[in-house]
Amino acid sequence: xxxxxxxxxxxxxARALTTRRRDFxxxxxxxxxxxSLVVAMAILGTLLFTxxxxxxxxxxxxxxxxxxxxxxxxxxxVAGIWQAFYGSLLLMVFTAVIALPTGIAAAIYLEEYASDTxxxxxxxxxxxxxxxxxxxxxxxxxLALFVKLLxxxxxxxxxxRSVIAGGLTLGLLVxxxxxxxxxxxxxxxxxxIREGAVGVGATxxxxxxxxxxxxxxxxxxxxxxxSLGRAFGEAAPLLLVGGITTFFSTGDSNLIETLxxxxxxxxxxxxxxxxxxxxxxxxxxxxxxVVMLIVLLLINGTAIFxxxxxxxxxxx
Amino acid sequence: MxxxxxxxxxxxxxxxxxxxxxxxxxxxxxxxxxxxxxxxRQVAVDYGDFRAVNDITLDVPSNEITALIGxxxxxxxxxxxxxxxxxxxxxxxxxxxxxxxxxxxxxxxHIDPVEVRRRMGxxxxxxxxxxxxxxxxxxxxxxxxxxxxxxxxxxxxxLRRAALWEEVKDKLRExxxxxxxxxxxxxxxxxAIATSPDVVLMDEPCSALDPIAxxxxxxxxxxxxxxxxxxxxxxxxxxxxxxxxxxAFFTVDVKEDGQRTGVLVEYGDTGMIFTKPDDPxxxxxxxxxxx
Lengths: 316, 291
Prior knowledge:
The complex is a heterodimer. Chain A has helices spanning about 1-20, 25-60, 65-70, 80-115, 120-130, 135-150, 150-155, 165-185, 190-200, 205-235, 235-240, 255-260, 265-275, 280-310. Chain A is mainly alpha-helical.
């Protein structure tokens, strides 16, 4: 009997192991997932194709340098995006200088120093809510605060409709996102690293400076740079605080004069051009969008590059 | 022979100890075996409304290895973390009773926890080297303690005492994460003793290691106790029996309302605890009839 069992056992085991169970729900789930992905990619692909093919006449007839380097104009034959391109970069830098140090510092305080009280929990919840506030609301705030109330400081010559007002408004817009992403990066630092530092007698500051921040840096950089990408693409708040799309000079003014001067930005120009009746602006708008997409790609690429650079040797 | 005021302990430090270079700055008079280093009186720890341990009274003598053993959740780690005020990191933690260190109340009003921790190295359950080079792992403690100039000697000496020097001397600039688990834990021990502490607190230092690495750490502990007082938390009773001079047995006291509080059952010479325990709960635990 034993011998028989030994002979037949392998057969039954083999049969049991090779039986395929039909997993309809699992298959259906996979198909739904794949379908969603295809839909999303198709929409994105259509968008990219439309924009890029629409912009081709501009690149053919005028070239990248001529288009980006020309002044804004009402004539589609000669209109370029220089003020908007320059203005967007200027706004980005100004926003970064204002919002990143403030936001990162606020997050370090909230995560590392503030004790967990009802007050800090309310503050945290509110920061999360602020991150979801529509950007037009920030535009209204910027209009009331930086343009009307503080116009004498932000832009005395231009009724407050200045780079400073625009940058501060965008700064407010990204501040909650900077705080949230930084706080999340800090929270992700393993307790064991903190304990190790504290265990050899590090003060809270030394622990943060030498151990927590270096480990959190990749996450902080990624999050904050992506938030700048969001600021870069915003049109609505800048329309309210006075982004303009008519000709103005970006000539030989010093830094303060430039910051207190008028500004334009690429998203504002997209909004403006897309409403113009002349046929020639269709292709120009598409070309402008392509430029914006490339700048955004560069921003995101920087974030990835910095993350990889700082992540070396930090993996646990 | 080394120039330490060696204790009466029977440890053979000559044969196995690495070459010694004196970097120790801790005062000599604290090195007398048998003097009480820590004195805990009716210590209780709360985490919020939850009392984790209650009524702990014990004296830890210097230059000996004191083991805290007991089942999970009995509060032995909590007690260990009170000694260097690591529980300060947990916001809801409250320590009651008194913990004296050289007769000074560690929870007194003017005590700086950072100064306390500089005198007590700590080794954690899971090896937790910093994500930096081997060198920087060791040098960080002395550096922040204000040691100026070249730290090469301190790094080498600490690694030698932790029995790791020979394995890493050619790759001090490489990441500590490239080391094996056992090496990482010895690195953490080297890091803990680099600041010339009085005490080394170890929280289940071998629980993540294989038996060979465990054996090395145990040998190391026995060497280290000529210089440092060691308090070790361990799940492993054989380990406590092998290395420790004194053993404190903790258990969980379950109240009628389901509250689980750690209490100290028995504390004494390791030999006595393991051969003739006074309390039946100790006997049940060490003979494996519990948990």
